[in-house]
Every structure is written in C-alpha cells, then in structure tokens.
Amino acid sequence: MSENQFLSGNFAPVTDELTSFDLDVTGEIPKQLEGRFLRIGPNPIAPNPQSHHWFLGNGMVHGLRLRDGKALWYRNRYVVDDQIVEAKGLPPVESPDRDDLMGGGMANTNVIQHAGKTLAIVEAGNLPVELSYELETIRRTDFDGTLPAGLSAHPHLDPDSGELHAAVYSPMWQAIQYVVVGKDGRVRKTVDVPVPGSPMVHDCMITKNYFILLDLPVILDPEVIEAGFSFPYKWHPDYGARVGLLPREGAAEDVTWHEVEPCYVFHPMNGFEDSDGRVVLDVVRHSQMFASDMRGPSDGTSTLDRWLIDPKGGPVKESRLDDMSQEFPRLDERLTGKPYRFGYTTGLGEDVSLGGLKKHDLQNGTASLHSEGDHRVFFEPVFVAESVDAGEDEGWVMAYVYDKRTDKSDVVILHAQDFSAQPLATIHLPQRVPFGFHGNWAPDEG
Ligand SMILES: [Fe+2]
What we know:
Layout (H helix, E strand, L loop, with lengths): L18 E3 L3 E3 L7 E8 L16 E9 L2 E9 L3 H7 L21 E5 L2 E5 L7 E3 L5 E4 L15 E2 L6 E5 L6 E7 L5 E8 L10 E2 L3 E6 L2 E3 L1 H5 L6 E3 L6 E6 L8 E4 L8 E6 L5 E8 L15 E8 L7 E6 L3 E6 L10 E7 L5 E8 L4 E5 L5 E3 L3 E4 L9 E9 L4 E8 L9 E4 L10 E5 L3
Antiparallel strand pairs: 1-5, 2-32, 3-4, 3-33, 4-5, 6-7, 7-8, 8-9, 10-11, 11-12, 12-13, 14-15, 15-18, 16-17, 18-19, 20-21, 21-22, 22-23, 24-25, 25-26, 26-27, 28-30, 29-30, 30-31, 31-32
The structure holds fe (ii) ion.
C-alpha cells in the first residue's frame, strides 16, 4: 500500500511538548490583542500507516499568548485521551461517570472558549475536554450533566444571545441532534431530528429564525471498517443531499427539507435571511468526499458556493461564488447568522497542502489574496475585530503558517483592510505546527 500522505511532510506529528517564552517577532503586534491564539489538530502518537485516517489522530493543541505587543509564550500539549494516558504513563483523565461515551476521550478538531472555559472539541460521540489557560488537560466535561451525548467540532456562537448552537451526530443514531448551550455553559435545549441514515454532520449554520441541518451523502458504511480502515464514513451519492430548516424554537416535525445536488460540506462560511425571507447559505462545497481515499479528504473539488432556499418550498437555487479550490471559511463572527460582506478562506493545492489566504468581498464579487510564496503554507484564517464597535473588516486576520524552507511555523497577523500587504507581525515559533484543523482567538476575559 502506498505511503500514507497524512503522516508525511507537515502532516507528520511532532513529538515534543514545548514551552517557549518571549518569542521573536518581525514587525509589530497590535497592542489591543490580549489573549491566546489557539489551534488544534491531530497528532497521532502511534499511528498504523496502513489504516490511519487523518481525522482520528490524538489531539494536540498549540497556543500563542499575546499581550502588550509581545508574544509572551508558545505552548503545545497533547489533549490527554486514554491512548496518551497509556503511552505516557499518566493518571486517568477525570471524566463524567457515563457508559455511553465513545472514542477514549479523543478531541482534535476545534478549540474554543465558552463560559470562561477553554474546550477542545470533536464530533461523533466524544465529550469536550476542558483545558487550563496553559493548555494542560483538566477533565472531560458533559456541562454539569446537561449534554446528552457528545458535542460537535463546530458550535456557532449567536452574537446576540451568546449561546452556542451545534449539530450533534453519532454513528449509533439515525438522527441529528440540535443542541443549544447557554451563556452559562449548560445545555438549554435539544431537538432530535430523524434522518434516513447515519450521516457525518461536521458543521451547521444559524440564521435569524432557523437552525440549518446538513444531511449529506457521507454516511456510515461498516464495510469500510471491514476493509481494514479506521474511519467508517463513505461517499454514497444515492443517499441524496438535503438541507433542513429547523425553526430555532421549533420541534423536529417543524423541519422543512430542501434537496441540493449531491455534494459534501465540511464548512459553511455563513448563513442569513434576505429581505424576502429567503435563506442564503454560503458553503465550501466538495463535489464528492471519501469516495476513493479512505485515509483523508483528498478527492473532488472544493468551491465556494451559495444556496438560496425559499422556506415555503421550490427548488434550491445553487450558484458558484468562486471556483478556486479552498477551505476553512471564516468571517467576522459578530455577523454569524446575519447578512455580511467579507469572508476569508485558505487556498488548497493539488495535494491537499494549503496555500495562501483569500479575502472575499461578497457584495462586490471581488477578492484579494495574501501569499508569501509557495513555501509559505497558511492554515485557517481567523478574524479579530479591532474593537467591539469596529466595522466589518476593521481588524486583523491571524493564521498559523508552515514554512517549507525552514521546516518551522510562524503566526502571521494581517490587517484585514490591507490584506495583500506584508503582515503587521510575524511571530516565529520554535517548531513546526502540523497541518490540522481549527483555531480561534481566545481573548483574555477581565
Ligand atoms: Fe471543521
């Protein structure tokens, strides 16, 4: 069998858990940035190259602490799961006493700050893992017993209510569970929505009136496991593809379903309702997913598309906003669920290596690029507003970058309104950060 590309190059795991202080900076870090720039990804401690799937590596979180124009520290730590406990001889991780949990405490897909806690999160059955400010694993949490199953890697914060909205799924269910987590960090509401199979539901959207469900044809297929692979989801376009609109305070029977062409969406950019009450959904649309490569996402195209849905019915109007291959869409999250103008994505190369960043002006249909050469490979762009009342692109775009020449990583801070220019600051990290998934700016809470 061929080499597993998801274990080579900058997909390869790092072994050291480092702590570095007072990092070298080129340029100037904006003094308003006080907090941590967190990111997480898989960092498998003992992978089998034959069966290893990129999505299933043990989590490792990386963090950069900024304050007063200085890069005070960088740390990287495993998110301690049962396999890490065994490999490193650590004490077991404190966990709720439940017998319905899956995956041995692995959390590798996103890292957020909510209700004063730093949480490493993942989908498909594992609980969130609470981390300390310095990124040490504290405990697994089910939010004081209020979380019925696992969470999702992509809860979305409603900027008006401060609540998190998430689509939870499990390989054991033929349902998608809508979960709302309150500002207090406890689950306020759940709705179980039946679906015909067991789809992989990576993300969701909210609009003013709806929670948006994605029931797409990457579904549980036990034959993949029987064939010796570790990740049980596969492309089955005959399943169909549809978008569900669940009224945010409604019940499962209130969902209206709207068919789209078969595709897969890991990540929406945003959704909102237009002045005619139609639902507008901007998504990175993969033409297929896990059709041929059972070890990671490497097949098909990934374009930025817009779906226009009339809640009263009729065909979904699908259009293409940008046919460049791209992923990791983000926006100014003060506008989550609302009409917006600017979004940010990462360019994808031919071999799933990442490229430069792109800023989309969806109002004017234009875009600007930030590239620092083919050897500088950008991860997910994260927008941080300059102040609470700043305009939509008045702020910074931050990203981790891998430099192929030095085999190390940096964090780059761009001014969002001068996107193609040299970075305001480049912070030099002591080691490379492997390609992974998601991150967020976690401001210090005073
Ligand atoms: Fe994701």
